[in-house]
Amino acid sequence: MASSQAFPLTGAVEVDETYIGGRRPGKRGRGAKGKSLVAAAVETTRHTMGRAYLRTIEDASLNSLQSFVKTHVTPGVTVTSDAFKSYTFLANVAQRHL
């Protein structure tokens, strides 16, 4: 399935990143070998979720996450994320950072 990416997310949006891949020995979480880092942005309401964008990203840096959000989220909407330091840019663009 592919998207034209011509329809950025609107309304309330949650953004997060995670590593995808099966259980492996060694380090877990950030820096785990053999796993793919995926960023996600999902439209949310009180009871359901709407459209979503997922994309593998090179790293969890501010630049990578900011590029993902700018590409997939309409400017000015409310964006909720966790307190991971790479999301500090959200505070600078009038979006919510929890």
Please describe what this structure looks like.
There is one protein chain. This protein is of the alpha+beta class and about 100 residues long. The protein has one domain (about 10-90). The protein has two helices and four strands, in the order E-E-E-H-E-H. It has a four-stranded mixed sheet, covered by helices on one side. A hairpin with a 4-residue loop joins strand 2 (about 35-45) and strand 3 (about 50-55). The termini are far apart. The model has no long low-confidence stretch (mean pLDDT about 85).
What are the key terms here?
single chain, about 100 residues, alpha+beta, 4-stranded mixed beta sheet, 2 helices, 4 strands, globular
What is the tally of beta strands? 4
- Biggest sheet record: 4 strands, mixed
Instruction: Give the strand order of the largest sheet, numbering strands 1, 2, ... along the chain.
Output: 3-2-1-4
Roughly how much helix do the residues carry, as a percent range? 10-25%
| Domain tally | 1
Number of helices: 2
Average the pLDDT over all residues and give the rounded result.
84
Gyration radius (Cα, Å) is: 14 Å
Strand content bin: 25-35%
Poorly predicted residue ranges: none
User: Helix and strand succession?
Assistant: EEEHEH
End-to-end Cα distance: 32 Å
Structural class: alpha+beta
Described by the principal axes of the CA atoms, the overall outline is globular
